[in-house]
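User: I'm new to structure prediction. If I give you an amino acid sequence, what do you actually give back? Let's try with this one:
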Amino acid sequence: RLIALPSGIEVSVGVVTALVGAPYFLRLMYRSIRRGGDLS
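Assistant: Good question. You get back a string of structure tokens that encode the predicted 3D arrangement of the chain. For your 40 residues, that looks like this:
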């Protein structure tokens, strides 16, 4: 029962991190692709 609380918090933190980080990551990819198309 006590393990469910931290795991639930970790899941919600992971979801928030994904929602916040995805647009930032896509923006970085878009800039690098627009700049020269060379991701390496």
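You can read the tokens as a compact description of the fold. Here is one thing that stands out. Helices lie at 4-35.
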